[in-house]
Design brief:
By secondary structure, this protein is an alpha+beta fold. Among the domains are: 102 residues, Rossmann fold (3-Layer(aba) Sandwich); 71 residues, ATP-grasp fold, A domain (Dna Ligase, domain 1, 2-Layer Sandwich), CATH 3.30.1490; 87 residues, Alpha-Beta Complex (Aldehyde Oxidoreductase, domain 3). It is 31% helix and 26% strand. It is built from 14 helices and 18 strands. It has a four-stranded antiparallel beta sheet, sandwiched between helices. The protein starts with a strand and ends in a 14-residue tail after the last strand.
Length: 419
């Protein structure tokens, strides 16, 4: 029986889907997780269940002490574990990308420098160290610009600024977000880059010995112009002209070669305007959240099964039905405490809707980007055309009513109010 080491983040959306795929394949799973290293011993957890994914060198040593060479593949469930997975695979001589390559594409500053070095369409960008005054940079910028945390994903810590005053506010805000989310925030600083106009698209692909196969090209029908960049709709197949779709694939493949990525899943985000294809990011992982479920019918297997098969060098044979499909990452309307929802049955009854999954729990604090790092849930559709798949998602979403209340209800004013 083949054996796979799965890096399962404690808050990962896809843990269950990967474990189900492993059971289907008859693969033995060695689980590793990132539970709190201070609390885990009291809970009776082994050290491999309390890894610090953001300290990959240290975590890799712990993993290797625990498993030796008793695994055939190493797979990270989400972005937080990809660098650690690459490092462990590298040390064991297993299939994977060089750890340095994975580290570089996760870092928005390093990736921008890579794109510029290799002649890609690339916005002007600047590094703003943590100790620097953004006011000194403000006068020399061409607005609008986008302020970005360097290693966060899912639109977290990304804000558009249209003038010097909004730049100062954005820098202050993103610095606070990054300081809470990344222990290396002080040494990382921020990226400030020119805003790229145009529509966004996402390519889901698989690299095998350097060759990129496109699994799906997604349209993002909602404009993402800021000031925040909450993603909502993904619809496939793309409605772009075939020649432009091929251009996107070629640019993503070229970026993978430049970054020295050669094997495994790839999720790339691009913008297209009259100047051409602009690569926003290339991630050495598959699509996040539960969005991968949208591809089950087009691939003939779950995306998690495909990733495991590839990591274990198992044969791949796609047998999709060719239908259009879409997914909505249900947007969070405002920050607050989630208490419940109405209209779930009505949303599920919309023609073309295959599932509505709510991912939050009552009493959970939720927040939209740029602060938030989670979703309310996911709506999935299948239809004869992309337009119908998109329409079903929008119709289902209109039927949902979320009860989100303020975190700190205002105290009643007046003499009778309790302090």
């Amino acid at each position: 029986m083949k054996r796979v080491l799965l890096l399962l983040p404690t808050t990962g959306y896809r843990n269950d889907d990967f474990l189900a795929a492993a059971r289907k394949l008859g693969v033995e799973v060695e689980a590793a997780a990132n539970y709190c290293h201070q609390l885990a011993p009291a809970w009776g957890f082994a050290p491999i269940m309390a890894l610090q994914f953001d300290r990959p060198e240290q975590a890799a040593d712990t993993v290797l002490r625990a498993i030796g060479a008793r695994t055939d593949a190493v797979v990270a469930v989400d972005d937080s574990g990809v660098e650690l997975a690459a490092l462990v695979a590298e040390r064991l001589g297993l299939r994977g990308n060089p750890a340095r390559a994975v580290r570089r594409v996760r870092d928005k500053l390093a990736f921008r420098a890579l794109l510029r070095e290799h002649g890609f369409a690339c916005p002007a960008f600047h590094h703003l160290p943590s100790a620097d005054d953004p006011g000194k940079l403000a006068a020399g910028l061409t607005y609008p610009v986008v302020v970005k945390a360097r290693r966060l994903s899912g639109s977290r810590g990304v804000i558009r600024a249209d003038d010097a005053a909004s730049l100062l506010r954005a820098v202050h805000w993103v610095r606070a977000i990054q300081s809470r989310a990344d222990r290396d925030a002080e040494e990382l600083g921020l990226v400030i880059e020119d805003f790229i106009p145009g529509r966004e698209y996402a390519l889901e692909g698989l690299l095998d010995r350097g060759k990129l196969a496109t699994l799906a090209l997604f349209d993002k029908p909602d404009p993402l112009d800021g000031p925040y960049f909450e993603e909502t709709l993904y619809v496939t197949p793309s409605r772009l002209p075939p020649a432009l779709q091929e251009r996107v694939r070629e640019e993503v493949a070229r970026a993978c070669r430049a970054a020295e990525l050669s094997t495994g899943p790839v999720h790339a985000e691009v913008r297209i305007n009259h100047q051409g294809v602009w690569i926003l990011e290339v991630a050495a992982r598959s699509i996040g959240g539960l969005c991968g479920r949208v591809l089950t019918h087009t691939l003939g297997m779950s995306l998690e099964e495909l990733n495991l098969r590839h990591a274990l060098a198992e044969p791949l044979a796609f047998a999709g039905d060719g239908s259009a499909a879409g997914v909505m990452m249900i947007p969070i309307p405002r920050r607050g405490v989630y208490h419940g929802l109405e209209g779930l049955a009505a949303a599920r009854s919309v023609p073309g809707i295959t599932d509505v999954t709510i991912a939050v729990e009552p009493r959970q604090i939720v927040a939209p980007p740029p602060d938030g790092a989670s979703y309310l849930g996911f709506i999935f559709s299948r239809a004869a055309s992309p337009a119908q798949a998109e329409g079903a998602l929008r119709s289902a979403h209109r039927r949902l009513r979320f009860d989100i209340r303020p975190e700190y209800p205002a105290l009643v004013s007046g003499a009778s109010a309790n302090p």
